[in-house]
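Blinded run. Sample ID left blank on purpose so nobody reads anything into the name before looking at the predicted structure. Input follows.
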Amino acid sequence: MDSGSESHSTIWSRLSRLFGHDEETLKKAIVEARALGCVDTDEESMLLGVLRFDDLQVQDTMIPRTDIDCVPVNMPLPEVARIVVGSGHSRIPVYRETRDNIVGILHAKDLLLSLIEPQDAETPVSDVMSEPFFVPETKSVRTLLQEFRARKQHIAIALDEYGGTSGLITIEDVLEEIVGNIEDEHDAPREEDICSVGESVYEMTGRALLEEVGELGIALSSDAVDTIGGYLSMEAGHVPAPGESFAVNGWLFTVLDADKKLIHRLRAELAENPRR
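Blinded prediction complete.
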């Protein structure tokens, strides 16, 4: 065994003895191991991801309802096939009337027959979809992973306390909390939630977390919302329209893109900075 292997063996032995201690002690041990070169960056990220895992709920990891690709139950299969191909998803939720009423999950492979056999093109989605797997948005992600494995499921619909659809979560989303982003050939590059465009000037998406925004020196906090888009809409009392600006805590926020429901992009700059 070479010296590198011995070092890894030693540090893993030290870390294994720490399990059962408090989370802060484990975090310090992992960070120390990285600083000493005993674990690499990927291993450090994975270990810290495992620690975060215990505290995560479905609502922390899920894709929000507004971002879900889904199809109505009465849509013809050829049209559904075009949406599935365009989205790159192998499974897609099916709803009746509104997204709050998810009634099935359609597998891309179940569409193949309608593409091969013309007489099956008029088959309703309801004939080929499978039963959805519903979970409360407050369910532990660790418990959900166990249920995914036991049920041989890959996708679940998250419900809020009123029984409405709040989001969607996949087994891939869960695993990414440990190992980091998993990309395949169908994944489009995701736009950065926050990017710097000048000195103390940032452009960000409405989904940027307040915690991430706080790391820029923009002190905002709320018990009601988690994202900058939600915070600014709450402060304004409405969803601000594109071009609308207002000052909060010494920063000037300008909405760049929004619709009736959500802020999609905005700019934040120190209020004393000249407008760009």
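Unblinding after everyone has recorded impressions. Residues 3-18 form the longest helix (16 residues).
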